[in-house]
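Tip: read the tokens left to right.
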């Protein structure tokens, strides 16, 4: 069983006291887990009492991330901050941001479509003018 560095445990405690780090002999990786108030009964989905899922359910934790043995670094805290829904303003803000991003993407899609239609229409018009003899196409020779 590996023992995590003391500095990491101190920063983890300061970051969120409901987080814990546990070594998984099964996966040979660190398991970053968070305490929950309500969990599933471990017997409902696992019979192996040494399985990581069983241990988490028994102790009322959920998996946040699996981290390789040599992967404990400060970047983990940056990743946790970036993915913290409440730090980003909660569900309402995330929903507003998603709706706005979808709106912008749809507007851009329509603008791109309009440009493509204009380009094809201009090309078809030039082709039609050449075909009807209203203009002559001269290749540039480049």
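Filled-in amino acids:
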């Amino acid at each position: 069983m590996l023992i995590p560095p003391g500095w990491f445990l101190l920063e983890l405690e300061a970051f969120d006291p409901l987080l814990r780090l546990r070594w998984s002999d099964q996966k040979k990786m660190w398991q970053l887990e968070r305490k929950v108030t309500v969990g599933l009964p471990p017997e409902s989905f696992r019979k192996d009492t040494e399985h990581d899922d069983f241990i988490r359910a028994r102790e009322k934790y959920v998996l946040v991330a699996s981290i390789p043995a040599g992967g404990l670094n400060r970047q983990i805290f940056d990743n946790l901050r970036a993915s913290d829904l409440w730090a980003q303003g909660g569900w309402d803000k995330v929903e507003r941001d998603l709706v706005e991003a979808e709106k912008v993407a749809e507007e851009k899609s329509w603008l791109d479509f309009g440009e493509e239609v204009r380009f094809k229409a201009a090309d078809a018009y030039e082709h039609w003018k050449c075909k009807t003899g209203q203009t002559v196409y001269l290749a540039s020779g480049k």
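The CA atoms of residues 40 and 57 lie 6 Å apart. The mean pLDDT is 88.
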